[in-house]
Specification:
Strand 1 (85-91) and strand 2 form a beta hairpin. The chain has a domain at 53-74 and 82-155: Fusion Protein Consisting Of Minor Coat Protein, Glycine Rich Linker, Tola, And A His Tag, Chain: A, Domain 2 (2-Layer Sandwich). It has a three-stranded antiparallel sheet with strand order 2-1-3. The longest helix has 16 residues, at 53-68. By secondary structure, it is of the alpha+beta class. 32% of the residues lie in helices and 13% in strands.
């Protein structure tokens, strides 16, 4: 249903939030014949047409950064421990999180702080769905384990 136009009221389009357009504009501002450092430099394909290992690492970083925005945890409960939690993700081609499993470290299986952190990381992954993925990311690169460090997330 399209809202009716009211007379005397100007219709404004919402500002564009197209990240790809912003990247293209930034690339145009570089001197011709040069490209700046970034994810494009690290996503070079191997001779077999698959993404190189370094590119898979940068994809994990990009996915992790999208999930961290949704990650909520109790900072006071962290104390002085250095926690790192892992979540096994399976993603559809459109970025939908089809599976998010907690990878529980046996050393902390009974620690309530660790379990709360890992549950919140898994919930953040589900809440972040769908995630933005590079175009043409093969299925084997959409099955990954992503690590989350609460100290890094607080920066």
């Amino acid at each position: 249903m399209v809202p009716a136009k009211r007379e005397g009221v100007r219709q404004y389009a919402p500002p564009s939030d197209d990240f790809d357009a912003q990247l293209r504009a930034a690339a145009r501002s570089l001197p011709s014949g040069r490209s700046g450092p970034g994810i494009a430099d690290r996503s070079v394909q191997s001779d077999k047409g698959a993404l190189a290992d370094e590119a898979a690492y940068s994809v994990k970083d990009a996915i992790g950064s999208q999930i961290i925005r949704h990650w909520n945890f109790n900072v006071a409960s962290l104390a002085k421990e250095r926690w790192v939690v892992r979540v096994h993700l399976q993603l559809a081609a459109d970025g939908t999180v089809t599976q998010a499993d907690m990878v529980v470290d046996p050393r902390y299986r009974t620690d309530p702080t660790y379990l709360a952190l890992i549950r919140s990381a898994r919930n953040a992954a589900l809440a972040s769905s769908p995630l933005l993925l590079p175009a043409g990311l093969p299925m084997e690169k959409r099955d990954m384990v992503v690590e989350f460090d609460p100290r890094t997330a607080l920066r």
